[in-house]
Structures are given as C-alpha cells and as structure tokens.
From TrEMBL:
The gene coding this protein: ispDF
PROSITE patterns the record matches: ISPD, ISPF
Name under which the protein is recorded: Bifunctional enzyme IspD/IspF
InterPro entries for this protein: IspD, IspD/F, IspD/TarI, ISPD_synthase_CS, MECDP_synthase, MECDP_synthase_CS, MECDP_synthase_sf, Nucleotide-diphossugar_trans
Annotated segments matching region 2-C-methyl-D-erythritol 2,4-cyclodiphosphate synthase: 235-390
Pathway terms, separated by semicolons: Isoprenoid biosynthesis; isopentenyl diphosphate biosynthesis via DXP pathway; isopentenyl diphosphate from 1-deoxy-D-xylulose 5-phosphate: step 4/6; Isoprenoid biosynthesis; isopentenyl diphosphate biosynthesis via DXP pathway; isopentenyl diphosphate from 1-deoxy-D-xylulose 5-phosphate: step 2/6
C-alpha cells in the first residue's frame, strides 16, 4: 500500500449507552453546544485521508441521519445497526463492500476527541500490516476485589487499554466479521480470531470514551481547551403564519390530519404549523421566507404538502453547516382541540427535520374568544427554531 490508499471510516453510533444515565443515548447528548456525534464526525470528515464515512445508527434513530450526513466536506452515508456492536459493524462494512476501500477505520461515536495525529498513526501502521489499533499501556497497580475489599493483585506488564479507531485492510476485516460467530469484545478480537496480526500504536490519553455521566464534563473541558473555548454560532429564528377556515372536514396541522368541521384555506395544504416552523428556520438563516422560496403564484405548489417546504428549509440549514437544535410551535385556535394530537405532531415534525422528538415542542392556546381566532375564523401559528453550527 502507499500514501494514496483509499480510506473509509465506520462510525458506530447504534448503542443506547445506559451507563450514561437517564436521557437520550450519549451520542446525541450535547457537548460544548453540539451533539457528541457531531464532534466525532468532524474529526474524520476534516481529515485529509478520509474519503467517506458510514454512520451506523440504531434503527429508531435513522430519521436523524439527514441532519448529519448532508455534508460537503466528506461523502457520508447512514445504515441501521444490528442487535449488538459486532452486527452493527458488519452492517457498516457491508455498506462499503461495493466500494471496497483499501483501509477502513472503525470508531466508537462516544470518542469525540480523537485527534488527527492518532488517525495518522493508525493509517501509517496499516501501510505495513493488515491491522492496527491505538492503546495505552496500563501504568496503575491492578487489584482484584470483592464486596468492597481488595482480594489480590495482578501483574500489569503487557496490559493495554484499547482505544479506537481500530484500522484494518478492508477485505481482511470484512471477511473476518462475516466468519465470526459473534460476541467479540471489539474489532481487534474479530481480527485476531481470523489470524490477523494487529499492530499496537500509541494511544492518546485525551481520546476518552464517554461512558458515565462524569465523562461529559471531562470531555467538555478537554474539547474547549483544544478549541480555545470558541463562541458557538447559535441562531434563533421566528415564524408566524395564519390561514382562514373554509369548507371541509379536516385540517392538517404539523403534518397530521385532524378531523374538524372546517378546512384551512391556502395555496398549498395550508398547514399553518409547518409553515411557521419553516419560516423560523429560514429566519435563523437570514434566508427570506417561505413565499420567496415557494411563491403562491407558482402553480407547482398548489395543494402541495407542506412537508416539502420544511424539508427544503432543513436542507438549506444543513448545507450551511447548521444542525437544528430544537423547534417550538404554538397553534392558536379555539377548535379543533390540538392537545390529543400534539405528540403525533411532534413526532412527525421530528421525523421531517431528522431530530429527536424531545427537541420538538407542539402546544396550543386559545385567544380567549378575542380576534379572528377567537371568532373561529382561522388558525394562527407562532414558531421558534434554534440552529447550532456543527
């Protein structure tokens, strides 16, 4: 192999991370203003040797892939993981089988502080052997224990703490994973079971794996120190929309059809909730409004589903390097009652935006019988969106 060998990366982000405590899986939790996963992907997408990335997500998280894979600096695809880590890695490798890169790096999403130098070290070792992985020699004394008491000691000579990325010649590790019965501790174990010689390269103490709640604080201190504690680019946008009632038997609100004795009048499907959210995203980007991107004078949008507009705004945010932090929309009407449908609406908005439902708030209020909404002449919506630089 030479310095021009093609390199792909499999980032494994399909775990649930129960040891990290209650809340979202750790790869989705914030770290220095952005998701842990975003920092991990940046480390590889910004490396000059990495040609493409396969992101392996839990099947329940696939709707969030679009917010991370739409990048201009590196080709990135997403696949669903399997029932355990080994199956998830195999799914990621199979997604690369047609391309068959020379080298593949397999990395845990929960290690967001991997450095360019560490990546370089693994790749350099792959020029000379079929497999390489970073590790730190164990320097502390090792004990055995039971019931809170020391029961013995162990020799630490020759012991190492494994890290990722673990690198391999692609064809060799794909064949090894296909043949392995499962249950391996990591990909080095799979490689060794197939008879591959694995080179140890120096690990990095800062390349910590976020496991428990305290690791987030340590990782944030390290990350902010590395970044010079920059001010994160956070943008807020507001959206407002109104549609009048007309004859009909249902209204569409935040992508959900709600039975009602009236319908909403509009050039498209008149989804006042999605329109307000769409304008909020455009507003955060200082990118005009929905009427400029989808003028009502254009017959193409007559009766169109408002999903189209929201996805367009989402993609423009992604293309400019922003992730959607959260959205909050309030529907103002006397009827229909929104509360029973709010969870379904939040789930639909989250699906369209590629974010977790816990980042979407859908609520409703009346105007106390005042104004056009109080007279039940129509529905209004007010929305706020937060964009965070990735």
């Amino acid at each position: 192999m030479n310095a021009q060998a093609s390199v792909a990366v499999v980032v494994v982000a399909a775990g649930r991370g129960v040891r990290a405590g209650p809340g979202a899986p750790k790869q989705w939790r914030p770290l220095a203003g952005r998701a842990v996963l975003a920092h991990t992907l940046d480390a590889f997408a910004g490396h000059p040797r990495c040609d493409r990335i396969v992101l392996v997500l839990h099947p329940d998280d696939m709707a969030m892939a679009a917010g991370y894979t739409a990048r201009e600096d590196c080709r990135m695809d997403a696949v669903a993981g399997g029932p355990d880590r080994a199956a998830s890695v195999l799914n990621g490798l199979e997604a690369l089988a047609e391309v068959a890169p020379d080298f593949v790096l397999i990395h845990d999403a929960a290690r967001p502080l991997v450095s360019p130098g560490l990546i370089d070290g693994v790749l350099a070792a792959l020029e000379k052997g079929p497999a390489a992985a970073p590790a730190l020699a164990v320097t502390d004394a090792l004990w055995t224990g039971r019931d809170g008491r020391v029961t013995g000691t162990r020799d630490r000579d020759g012991l190492f703490r494994a890290q990722t990325p673990q690198g391999f010649h692609f064809d060799a590790i794909l064949a090894a994973h296909r043949a392995h019965p499962g249950g391996a501790a990591d990909d080095v174990a799979v490689a060794r079971a197939a008879g591959l010689d694995v080179t140890i390269v120096p690990g990095d103490p800062d390349n910590l794996k976020i496991t428990g709640p305290a690791d987030f604080a340590r990782a944030e201190r390290l990350l902010r120190g590395r970044m010079g504690d920059p001010i994160t680019d956070i943008r807020l946008g507001n959206g407002y929309d109104v549609h009048a009632f007309t004859e009909g038997d249902h209204v569409t609100l935040c992508g959900v059809s709600v039975p009602h004795d009236r319908a909403l009048l509009g050039h498209s499907d008149a989804d006042v909730g999605l329109h307000a959210i769409t304008d909020a995203i455009y507003g955060a980007l200082a990118d005009g409004d929905i009427g400029q991107h989808f003028p009502p004078s254009d017959s193409r949008w007559k009766g169109a589903e408002s999903d189209i507009f929201l996805v367009h705004a989402r993609d423009r945010a992604t293309a400019r390097g922003f992730a959607i932090g959260n959205v909050d929309v309030t529907l103002v009407c006397e009827r229909p009652k929104v509360g029973p449908h709010a969870p379904q609406m939040a789930a639909r908005v989250a699906e369209l935006l590629g974010i977790s439902p816990d980042r979407v708030s859908v609520k409703a209020t009346t105007s106390e019988r005042l104004g056009f909404t109080g007279r039940e002449e129509g529905i209004a919506a007010i929305a706020t969106a937060t964009l965070v630089a990735r």
